[in-house]
Amino acid sequence: xxxxxxxxxxxxxxxxxxxxxxxxxxxxxxxxxxxxxxxxxxxxxxxxxxxxxxxxxxxxxxxxxxxxxxxxxxxxxxxxxxxxxxxxxxxxxxxxxxxxxxxxxxxxxxxxxxxxxxx
Length: 119
What we know:
This is HPt domain-containing protein. The chain has 119 residues and is mainly alpha-helical. It has one domain (18-118): HPT domain (Four Helix Bundle (Hemerythrin (Met), subunit A), Up-down Bundle), CATH 1.20.120.160. The chain has six helices and no strands.
């Protein structure tokens, strides 16, 4: 019994992958070529959007960028990126400086993971 509890505890502590491949496969109906194209586009887009968010000073434009990236992340199953984008939108709605470092970390985790899949 104690061993089973430890196994559950260890499993709970392990982080989910930065991209939900089951969700991706479902949305592409199992088309592996399409999955790879989507992963590669997201990898490029997420890095580009992060750079644009960092350079942009207009809060409205920043919200639009974060919202666009959030939608792409949700479609792909990149929950960490989507959550970080939501935090940015929330901060901007409150008139606060957005937490770009959290998004940078989430994008980095997702892109490193994607790199491991497509290389």
